[in-house]
């Protein structure tokens, strides 16, 4: 019975988890690996989680913690380009290009800022929920969100307007 419940949970939540994981990793294959690792850990704690009803929160927190740990182990180095890449139309006419620009800008952010922005604005989590998932204070969420949004505005001038992002 537990395995059937877990399979139902996986079927119902995988798409949403993959979407979040992709935004965190910036790569479809890494996102799939991240979700698979998080679900493996969730399966190990399934009996306890099924009773408490917190399986989704546990899986997401596990996913974010695994990703932050991966970021800590891996050191990113930035490389400058001789020529700036061509930009899409900043007026939003090309939605695919705009999405790619946003992805590129998110990947330029430090890991914690990226995680905060994904949780707050792409998953529509409250500050308290984001703080709980990342194991930090609400103040940290607020400051990281402000810094991340400021950097995104610099990376994507004219696209991210304060009224569109801030709620």
> How much beta, percentage-wise?
under 5%
Give the overall shape.
globular
End-to-end CA span = 43 Å
Radius of gyration: 17 Å
Spans of at least 5 consecutive residues with low confidence? 162-167
How would you classify the helix and strand content by structural class? mainly alpha
Number of continuous helical runs: 9
Summarize the main sheet.
none
Mean pLDDT: 80
The share of residues in helices is: over 70%
How many strand units? 0
Report the order of strands and helices. HHHHHHHHH
Structure description:
Helix content is about 75%, strand content about 0%. By secondary structure, the protein is mainly alpha-helical. The protein starts with a helix and ends with a helix. About 25% of the residues are buried. Residues about 160-165 have low confidence and may be disordered.
Protein topology:
Elements: H1 2-25, H2 28-44, H3 46-52, H4 55-73, H5 95-108, H6 111-122, H7 127-134, H8 138-155, H9 162-165
Task: List its salient traits.
74% helix
